[in-house]
TrEMBL record, chains A, B:
Domain of life: Bacteria
Organism, as annotated: Acidihalobacter aeolianus
Protein name, UniProt field: Carboxysome shell carbonic anhydrase
Enzyme nomenclature, EC number: 4.2.1.1
Domain spans labelled Carboxysome Shell Carbonic Anhydrase catalytic: 124-353
Domain Carboxysome Shell Carbonic Anhydrase N-terminal: 18-108
One Gene Ontology biological process: carbon fixation
Length: 478, 478
């Protein structure tokens, strides 16, 4: 039995074409998504082909030719020269191919994302107009949420105002957030800007089709537990800053939920004192249903009215700017709901995990897509181990059970304007890799963890620059 | 052959009594130092006595009586009930006694430090008068530098303006310092204060008696290397902040050296652009010699003139406030030079290491004395392991070689105004302890690491509150 789509009757007479949906943007995003999926699918397809090649004298050359033509990368020559006894290390080649696909996607992002990046509903200018200098967003580390910015929220992932920090169960680190808050607030004052605020958003998730199995693993697939934990963490952060720095300085907070089957969001408006509430306020799927068939202005007004009513219902102190941002998030999400209706038959075929690799460290701004990777934000494994544990557990089922390796990109950002920052980011990559290797020794088969260590320059040009791969037969690529 | 004292001819006719020396303060500090030394010596003495007691039925009661009377602490009852076969675990009792002495010293600090704390030459008011809101001080982690604040510099260790972060070789963490800088600069702006600045001081060290063996281990006991490395780190921090936040915002920097045999300092004035210079500028021992016999005003003027000449010599851009602070540091150090002359025969008997335990994490403001402990500032072992390695290496020679354990206090501060902060500080203690245990497994004999996990409240009353001891037979004391 297929569950009905709560936004639109897919078998009904009315077409699922909402007046507020940006169809051109959806088209561009779909083209991008399909292209990326194909690129990553190709890694496996091409390597399967290589695995079937005769292992005679021409093998290495043929393999390189295939890799070059279809994956746009070189394969490590040493791996292709595997002995007849041990055979060729296909797991190493697979990880190498994935890392190459990532780097290629990031390098080509300016061109490949051009069609949709400028069309994002929410960008720096709009965020500023709503009264915010920073949107600090914590989704769950779960791969199904790694497309939230460009797809679900239609927020430009490269926005200066946006900080993306994923944690298992959306349980962000209070101290790291306070450091970010401090840095951003100081920057505002140094630049003589006043009046804009810091907004912290926590995004929990659930599955409407399989609520007890495909929800958030960190909260035992319990939707209420996931919601309540995220609200509690928001409250801790806000209260902490208010008590440490001053009552008027507490950041605004916004609690959101996502049904990962549909990419439909729900919004919990903050309460009378700005505190996070777990009360359900606005569901985007319901908004879609209610406003389908309306003209643009009427639908927009309905959304604004719905938010006002919800705000009144919880006596919310949400500012005009926050309500405007919420309205824009809801409108943007109508596009994503219709995107899933049009391009994924109303409900993702793959409800559960389908990540291809793990990313730990800082976010890859230029590569964000549902189920492409599991992302654990951390500075050290010592502090972030719980999130990596969840990721490794997912990959035990996804990959190790099939004899596939666990590819891990360790990625840290640095600011090249700070002397020695790149070297320290590289050291951090190495430390975290050593930590991961040591932590899962005995749990993950010897050699099954494959690492790509990468750094990006926050104040310069380097993007996902490869420091080195480890376990893929490639050393010190650049 | 005993090296001559460079400040004063100890065999000469002129008494070593300098007009600028605060003799009452010296007396109070010496009383405190002697009391602390006796308290920590007593731990060993009393436990040796207990070890010699007959192990009959009355043993436990007698041991408790001794500990109570002379150490002011209880011993873990389980340890006193050791089997006749295994004997009593004296190493565990020793570590427990040391930890108890630390807690007692901190608890009694308000009373025991009353005689000298208010007399410190440099306190919050003076720091503010010199134009600084923060003195961020990094000495080496070496135990011989753990008395620098109250003794060598005569800076009140409890000053709000002072941050103390020790690292092996004085090689402080640029990113941690930038975070502290950001937090302090924001606080200034939130409080509407302007015009005061952040001063970073790096303190390297050397030994005039045994330059090639008792200098800084992290720099191969090479004085020039220690100095140059500290200068380079200061330059990185200053340049980093200038480039990331704005040229005018770079912190002031001050490079200092200490001869740990004499506690005599040297000052390297910053250069024309405020950059750290390695040029030698003013030596306190020489200043002592030159001004001995002068009246107060004349001596003070001589110091000021010496600083002005040195500043002119390197075209220093040091502000009036910085020069005033340097003058006060030099004057204060004259007292310490004379302190070592009067109470330690002009040169410490123990030139090398004599630490009794290792402290990792945040500083113990209320307990600072030369060679009492090795202190490695860190947030995670992952980032701070290099400093702990040096500490463990020192204790291999000091303690493990004699069959003594390695007592480690893991201490983190939290702000109780931030919800959940204490729980997170406790978790951090546990994580760091687990990390240390894992890192030195195989290198340090099983069970030889003894831990005391403690937390202090930066915004409330708890000071070195015991979370639990580990390896001392005591679990969950409070």
């Amino acid at each position: 039995m297929v569950l009905a789509n709560p936004a639109c009757d897919l078998n009904g007479r009315q077409p699922c074409e909402h007046a507020l949906v940006d169809r051109a943007l959806n088209q561009a995003l779909h083209g991008y998504e399909a292209m990326l999926q194909a690129r990553f699918d190709d890694v496996e397809a091409v390597l399967r082909g290589i695995a079937e090649l005769p292992r005679g004298e021409g093998f290495a050359a043929q393999a390189q030719e295939l890799a070059h033509a279809r994956l746009g990368c070189e394969l490590p020559e040493a791996l292709l020269q595997g002995s007849w006894m041990a055979g060729v290390d296909m797991a190493a080649l697979y990880a190498h191919g994935l890392f190459a696909a990532c780097r290629r996607s990031v390098a080509q992002a300016p061109r490949e994302q051009a069609d949709w990046l400028a069309g994002m509903a929410i960008d720096d200018a709009f965020i500023g107009d709503c009264g915010y200098h920073t949107l600090d967003i914590t989704p769950c580390a779960d791969g199904r949420l790694q497309g939230v910015l460009p797809f679900v929220f239609r927020i430009a992932p490269t926005s200066e105002a946006v900080l993306l920090k994923a944690y298992a169960g959306a349980l962000f680190d209070i101290e790291i957030d306070m450091t970010d808050w401090t840095q951003r607030e100081l920057m505002q004052r140094l630049n003589g800007r006043q009046g804009t605020r810091y907004l912290k958003m926590a995004v929990y998730h659930y599955s409407s089709s399989a609520p007890s199995s495909e929800g958030c693993a960190a909260h035992g697939s319990n939707e209420d537990a996931a919601r309540d934990a995220a609200a509690a963490r928001l409250n801790q952060l806000r209260t902490g800053i208010m008590q440490a720095f001053g009552v008027g300085l507490g950041p605004d907070v916004l609690l959101l939920g996502i049904d990962t089957d549909l990419d439909a969001i729900r919004v919990h408006l903050p309460g009378a004192q700005g505190e996070p509430l777990t009360t359900l306020t606005v569901e985007a799927a319901q908004v879609y249903r209610e406003t389908l068939g309306m003209a643009v202005e009427q639908a927009s007004k309905h959304i604004a009215d719905t938010i006002e009513q919800a705000a009144a219902g919880v006596r919310s102190s949400a500012s005009v700017g926050l309500k405007r941002l919420i309205a824009r998030l809801l409108e943007a999400n109508l596009s994503q709901i219709e995107y899933v209706i049009q391009h994924h038959e109303g409900r993702y075929e793959r409800l559960g995990h389908g990540e291809r690799f793990i990313c730990v460290g800082d976010p890859i701004d230029e590569l964000q897509m549902r189920n492409l990777y599991y992302f654990a934000h951390l500075d050290t494994l010592e502090e972030g181990a719980a999130c990596v544990d969840v990721g490794v557990h997912i990959f035990e089922k996804l990959n190790l059970s099939r004899g596939y390796p666990v590819p891990v990109i360790v990625h840290f950002s640095y600011a090249s304007v700070i002397p020695g920052a790149r070297e320290r980011a590289v050291e951090r990559c190495e430390r975290v890799m050593r930590g991961i290797t040591a932590r899962y020794r005995g749990q993950v088969p010897e050699g099954a963890l494959k690492f790509g260590l990468c750094v990006s320059d926050a104040t310069g040009d380097e993007r996902l620059g490869l420091v080195r791969e480890c376990g893929t037969g490639t050393q010190a690529v650049n």
